[in-house]
């Protein structure tokens, strides 16, 4: 899946209210054959991801997802099921559909279990892409839990490539609530070294390589092997779907460990002191992970999500193909 790498506000484009973007994306998935409730969830998650300026995993991905659905590789009408459940764990099956559907439900279940029992963990399997890991860790965070979300996908490991390929680049997110300060929300891939220059850089940065491999291997276990994505029934030719992904989603109820007010006060103290330090080179402010995304989201919710011309064209093209009207012309006056 080709993902654009720029995850910062664009320097040109228009501002679109999040509600309009949600409705558009939901309509696109309905036109592709997805039930209205599932399509609406896709619209909400992808638009909120754009609001944080994580464009690589936002609404522009709808075009690729819809192509997979229309061409028969992703199930548009999956029956999400809970195949195993205990007091604090759940295993969900995605029935070959988009990973957002079982993962969102799994995150809700993890939070509910954590609020009642202190901790809740869900794994998901037999589905396609689950998007930005931060979607699910933040769901725990806004419910005063610490959230962890990890995903992995099934792929072949070529013996002609070096062992770094075993890491798979799996995504993870770790989100922690705060009080008045921006929350801490790490959302990243296990790849910390640019691809294409790995062996040339190894002698200089061997520690970074081995740490990247270690992170990736751990994420492969949590997000893939433990959920069961390697089971034969989820692979071709037995399965007709590209159900090559899984996820591990955990929620930890802060109040089960200490006073929530005390925890948030201590988080605010830590985050405020970090933000008072010198910024990284080329940065205008010092922010911990998630700080900039939190600020961009506040701005997007107030002023509209910034959509550049290329992003707009991607959505207009797929909308035209599906016979869905877009709202963008109504916001040309917001051009910047």
List key phrases describing it.
single chain; 336 residues; alpha+beta; Ribosomal Protein S8, Chain: A, domain 1; two-stranded antiparallel sheet; 10 helices
Describe it.
- The protein is of the alpha+beta class and 336 residues long.
- The protein has a domain at 104-288: 2-Layer Sandwich (Ribosomal Protein S8, Chain: A, domain 1), CATH 3.30.1370.
- The chain contains ten helices and nine strands.
- The strands form two sheets. It has a seven-stranded mixed β-sheet with strand order 2-3-4-8-5-6-7, sandwiched between helices.
- The radius of gyration is 20 Å and the shape is globular.
Strand content: 15-25%
What is the name of the CATH architecture of the domain at 104-288?
A: 2-Layer Sandwich
Termini, distance in Å? 30 Å
Tell me the helix content.
Answer: 25-40%
CATH topology of the domain at 104-288: Ribosomal Protein S8, Chain: A, domain 1
The sequence of SSEs as H and E is EHHHEEHEHEEEHHEHHEH
Structural class: alpha+beta
**What's the helix count?**
10
Mean pLDDT over the full residue set:
94
Output the CATH class name of the domain at 104-288: Alpha Beta
Shape: globular
Q: Outline the low-pLDDT stretches.
A: none
Evaluate the radius of gyration. 20 Å
The CATH homologous superfamily of the domain at 104-288 is called Malate/L-lactate/L-sulpholactate dehydrogenase, NADPH binding domain
Number of strands: 9
């Amino acid at each position: 899946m080709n993902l654009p790498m720029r995850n910062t506000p664009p320097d040109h484009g228009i501002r679109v209210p999040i509600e309009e973007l949600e409705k558009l994306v939901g309509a696109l998935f309905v036109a592709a054959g997805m039930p209205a409730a599932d399509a609406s969830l896709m619209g909400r998650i992808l638009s909120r991801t754009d609001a944080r300026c994580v464009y690589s995993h936002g609404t522009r991905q709808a075009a690729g997802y819809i192509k997979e659905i229309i061409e028969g590789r992703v199930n548009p009408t999956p029956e999400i099921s809970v195949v195993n459940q205990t007091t604090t764990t759940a295993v969900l099956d995605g029935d070959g559909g988009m990973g957002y559907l079982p993962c969102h439900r799994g995150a809700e279940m993890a939070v509910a279990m954590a609020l009642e029992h202190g901790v809740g963990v869900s794994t998901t399997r037999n589905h396609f892409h689950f998007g930005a890991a931060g979607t699910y860790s933040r769901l725990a965070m806004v419910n005063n839990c610490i959230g962890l979300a990890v995903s992995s996908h099934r792929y072949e490991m070529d013996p002609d490539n070096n062992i770094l390929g075993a890491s798979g680049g799996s995504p993870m997110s770790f989100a922690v609530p705060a009080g008045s300060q921006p929350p801490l929300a790490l959302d990243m891939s296990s790849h910390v070294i640019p691809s294409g220059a790995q062996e040339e850089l190894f002698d200089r940065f061997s520690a970074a390589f081995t740490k990247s491999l270690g992170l990736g291997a751990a994420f492969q276990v949590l997000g893939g092997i433990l959920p069961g994505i390697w089971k034969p029934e989820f692979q071709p030719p037995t399965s007709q779907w590209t159900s090559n992904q899984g996820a591990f989603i955990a929620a930890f109820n802060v109040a089960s460990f200490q006073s929530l007010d005390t925890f948030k006060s201590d988080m605010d103290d830590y985050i405020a002191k970090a933000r008072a330090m010198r910024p990284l080179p080329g940065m205008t402010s010092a922010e911990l992970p998630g700080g900039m995304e939190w600020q961009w989201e506040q701005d997007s919710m107030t002023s509209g999500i910034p959509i550049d011309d290329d992003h707009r064209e991607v959505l207009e093209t797929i909308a035209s193909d599906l016979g869905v009207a877009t709202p963008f012309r109504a916001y040309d006056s917001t051009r910047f």
